[in-house]
Amino acid sequence: MNASNPLPIVGIQPLGFPWPTLDPFLFCVYHDDAYPAGNGAFGPQASLAGRQIGQDFAGKDGWRMYHGKTVPGFPAHPHRGFETVTVVRKGRIDHADSMGATARYGDGDTQWLTTGSGIVHAEMFPLLDEQAPNPLELFQIWLNLPARSKMAAPHFTMFWAEQIPRHLDSGVEIACIAGRIGDATQGLTPPPDSWASQAEADLAIWTLKLQPGAAWTLPAAAGGNSTRRQLYFFKGKGLQLAGQVIGSHVAIELRGDAAVPLVNGGSDVIELLMLQGRPIGEPVAQYGPFVMNTEQELRQTFDDYRRTGFGGWPWPDEAPVHGADPERFARHADGRVERAGKRA
């Protein structure tokens, strides 16, 4: 650590919607919805009166329909030029896309989708249990693609909960979705065109859980201060970071070259998300679901989508749901099927 600036904290800001991010990340949002029992048609067993259906983000009664009309979620919508990393902590998500692929995943699974040259997909939140509540909790993270990869072929990868490496240490549990924790814990292989697949990117996505009284030292990033990292303190109270008491529901930017002691000094479990990576350092031109490098490329993207629909939509409706069976699976465009972490 630089002796002239020994403090590991660069800055702290409150968590809003979405959460603040640093290059190479574009966007991070946390969804935590206390959905009621299902109605037998995968929607909520509750009145939808008073909600702005199709644009329901208000959080009435502790849950949202988002862009869904009868089932919560995000019906068919396009993307180009970046990646979505969807980390589902509770509940289920039903994926369908313009390549003809489908998936149902959740309860610790992560889907890593390279949108590349263009894809249309739906992310629906089916309420499968008709007798009890259907809680849903997830992060969706947008990771930029470098210019050389923005027109790569679309590709999705499933990281099943059973496969994701975990670091355990005296009341501390870290799920290593990407990157490396010390010498023993290495995340799974990211998609081939991802910035995360480049060794020099020093990219990491971790979720951390500290029991009361637990302590752990976040190691310095391999890239030192060329790596930027942000720690999101989203659940619990009593975090002490490098000896400083930190208020909850904040994003903490940390120096990449600092090893940072973390202590849970409270009586609640503390949960954090860490996003880390070397910046791509290229211009960003973004409009809604499209992220390119120039305004001209954005105009071309809109023209391409109007002309091709990024392959069209092969499903009978814009919000497909994959039946009542809660089993987790992925069916890829080439017909390959995976189930709960094991290929069929």
Strand and helix layout:
Blueprint: E1 9-14, E2 25-35, E3 73-79, E4 82-90, E5 92-97, E6 102-106, E7 110-114, E8 119-124, E9 134-144, E10 155-159, E11 166-168, E12 172-178, E13 180-181, E14 185-186, E15 204-210, E16 215-218, E17 228-235, E18 239-241, E19 244-246, E20 250-254, E21 260-264, E22 270-277, E23 285-287, E24 290-292, H1 295-308, E25 329-331, E26 337-339, E27 342-343
Antiparallel strand pairs: 1-20, 2-9, 3-8, 4-7, 4-9, 5-6, 5-8, 6-25, 7-10, 11-12, 12-15, 13-14, 15-22, 16-21, 17-20, 17-22, 18-19, 18-21, 23-24, 25-26, 26-27
Offer a few descriptive terms.
single chain, 344 residues, Jelly Rolls, 7-stranded antiparallel β-sheet, 1 helix, 27 strands, globular, disordered N terminus, RmlC-like_jellyroll, Pirin_C_dom, RmlC_Cupin_sf, Pirin family protein
Name of the CATH homologous superfamily of the largest domain:
Jelly Rolls
> Count of DSSP E strands?
27
Envelope shape: globular
Level-2 CATH architecture of the largest domain:
Sandwich
**Level-1 CATH class name of the largest domain:** Mainly Beta
* Uncertain stretches: 1-5
Helix content estimate: under 10%
